Amino acid sequence: MGLLMLASAWPVVAARVQIEAERVVLGPGSGRNLHITLDQPAAGPAVARVVMSDFDSGLGWRYAALSAECELTVTAEASACIGALQADRLRRALNLAWAADGGSIILAEGRRRLAARFDLAQPDRVRVQAQALPVSWAQPFLATVWATAQPSQGRFGGEIEIRFPASGPLRTLARLDLDGLGLDTPDGSLAAAGVSGRIDIDQIGTGGGSQVRVGGRLTAGEFLWGTVYVGLGAEPVEGSLDLVGEADGGWTIAEFKWSDGATLSAQGSGRIEADGGLTALRVHAESATLAALAERYLSGPLGLAGLAGMRLSGRIAATVELARDGPVAITVAPEQVVLVDAGGRFRFAGLDGVLRWTAADQPVESDLAWSGAAMHGIGIGPVRLAWRSHAGALDLRQPATLELLSGRLELERLHVEPPMTGRSAVAELALTVVDVDLAALSQALGWPSFSGTLSGRLPMARYARQRLDFDGGLSMRVFDGSVAIRALSMERVFGVAPSLAAEVEFTGLDLQPLTAAFGFGEITGRLDGHLHRLRLLDWQPVAFDAALLSAPVQRGPKRISQRAVQDISRIGGSGLIAGLQGQALKMFSTFGYARLGLRCRLDNNVCSMDGVGSAGDGYTIVEGAGLPRINVVGFQRRVDWPVLVGRLKAATEGQLPTIE
Questions:
Q1: pLDDT value at position 87?
Q2: DSSP letter assigned to residue 523
Q3: How many CB atoms lie within 10 A of CB 616?
Q4: What is the dihedral of CA 393, 399, 405, 407, to 10 degrees?
């Protein structure tokens, strides 16, 4: 600039001046192989040409080749040089101006404009004004503080001041207006689109020991960080970030703040590695309106967890501490929170208290309560759960009792290891069910209308690696008899094509309420049986060996109704009873029986049928007793499973014909 001022004072005579320098320092920047040529023809304006290689601005912009050419115009008050600047492949219009108190450099392309002002009274600083610049222009500077950021769209404008004192670090201050900014990272872990607002930047130094403070107010935009999607609402969001550069290229987050009204306020600290990964983070967040928080911030995580559309209300506070390998500690404090699953699977009301989880060996304790809950429509009474956490696990400190359908559920043990420490989720459960109303349970689950109560004990259930095992089996009292389930296990319970394996034994079930519950023809007596080698895939049976047999020893009458005879005959494939037995069906409503039973071994979607004995080419399903004596015989030994299911469905829905 000073050299051009000297040229403007020359008399107008033909002349050429050339200046060369191997290296030159320009404020924070530097370059090599500088060549300056000033040509003053005998007539016409002077022309200045500048060529430089390996130019480094000190602010991120670097060019292998830099050149400029402009025509010099001189007036009494000021001088100017108008031409063009070439920086590698970039070409911009150039306008240099200077006067006694300083000068300016203006680069322009259409509406885009970058103007730098030099003040001779303050030679250690430059003031820059930006107008409608594409965000890609700022990428080199952004890379000095965020190497992996890749701006993709949007514009910015505003004021920038660069200070480069003779002693002391470089300092950059900026107040910028953003318009539709978009950026992402190579690994896709962070992305932004349509971001608008105003930000303030204060950067002192570069590299290790540098300090950066960014604060601002955003009015629009979308963000994606991992699985967390944030869409800014109608109200502006304010935030700030204080960083300290480390020698290894990483950053210490001294403090960050985020304020989105009552929806979310958060503050914390941490560390970012040179590759952009978080190796330490501590965040405390609060929300006074969970409904807005779920809509604006939690749609992504809830969707991945299979909870899309879940309705939330109430208040919540949370503190999360992360290290390189994952979470270190989590504290969640709900206040009158309501959770309602969109699919109706569960509901919690009045969630209150504190839940603490820690990966450390030193245990921490907490208490969490709810005023009411439901699982698949089954109401659960209020409870307070006392927790202890250590080494990445949560355990009940003491047993808990929950009201459940006029009975109770006694929770003896609950151990949970969330999938937060590089391990798969693990859960262990032991409980006892006492006097649960079967009629209410049936109605809630959409089952046939059972009567009586349900009691039973589950000594231990363990979930790990997508497999659920029931150690010690599951026993229960139902229909005045007992059911024992052994070797019960499930795989991929919450995944694709879940499977189940089990061995089931039942003894002394009262047939009268059992047949009534399923809409079957009435039978009195007791029923024994088993369901061996049961296998379900995607909750559909693919294999089992089943037997339903009248108990060999029992008290009380053993009677079977006309409707039940018809139902059983159709299930066994015997068709309508003919001859004298058919006539008996017309005359009597119930009959005595000595034995009854039906067996089915399912394999390859075909059921191999049998009964309580052979009857020629068939098998006996009902062996009559007394007068009138009636036997039911099945003749189809192999029945397709869908056909058998259809027969059972027709029988329980009362669709079979009656004898007249």
A1: 92
A2: B
A3: 8
A4: 150
